[in-house]
Amino acid sequence: MQWPLTVHGYSNFTLTGTAEGRRRAAHYLGSGLADGTLRPVIGEVLDGLERIRDAHRLMESNRHTGKIVVRI
After folding, report:
1. 29: exposed, middle or buried (Cβ count in 10 Å: 0-12, 13-18, 19+)
2. pLDDT at 35 over 70
3. CA 31, 34, 38: angle at the middle one, nearest 5?
4. For 1-12, what is each residue's pLDDT tens digit?
């Protein structure tokens, strides 16, 4: 490790604890998703509700990177 180590922490409540904060956060997320600035990383797409067990196994194994999507 390299020293000095700097750790930054953030509290979501600080951002969303007020109505104005929630409005600003919703606007930021909504506009980022709409214009493509924020794109979720999809790790695996499983088709059908019968694959829900596979999705849970994958999630519990912690071997994935990104979101696990079950398309029904």
Report:
1. exposed
2. yes
3. 75
4. 567 877 777 777
